Amino acid sequence: MQFQISHKPSFSLLKLRLGPGQSIKSEAGAMVYMSSRIGVETKMGSGFLSALSRKIFGGESFFFNTYTAPETGGEIGLAPDLPGDIIDLDLNGKSIFVQSGSYLASDPGIQVVSKFGGLRSLFGGEGLFLLEISGTGKVFLSSYGAIVPIRVEGNYTVDTGHIVAFENSLQFKVGKAGGNWKSTLLGGEGLVANFTGNGTLWIQSRVPSGFISWLTKLLPV
Predict the structure, then answer these.
(1) Closest CA to 129 of 66, 46, 73
(2) What is the superkingdom listed in this entry's lineage (predicted)?
């Protein structure tokens, strides 16, 4: 499988060239275009309960689409709903946790399972469930705005809405952005995730809620 990510970081498009019989699994609704004779198979996530939790709590689609090229190969283009970046990661048997909405596509053998993030993720505005993505192969993540990798060694603090993904070697706790609740509620920063450990964290440079708040102010009363 060959791929190219074009129009980064604002309006990224994932272009894939599939060899004979090769497949790519994607979030439902991500397909932009594809060449003729590519087969499409729609399935639920890793079991009914996992698929249901992804839909209700994780903000993800109930289904995955798997696209398989014919004997002559084929091309397919994928893109997320929101304008922003796309990155590729090689998992190589490792696992990462991904916020709802940031999974775009992966090799068919990659596992995507909903995991309970605890009340800390609910209060952090990211939903009750995170996605645990594991296996060997490529995974493609998307964002609203540019994606910035951060190497965490010890401690790091990030606004909860800016989290895209993080390695499972990192732990986090949700807390106040300021020294007290007044600063947190009135200072415009909301809640933050305090990460500890050693690993990579990926953040997005913008959050949809910020754009929605700005747009709402322009609407007529």
Answers:
(1) 46
(2) Bacteria
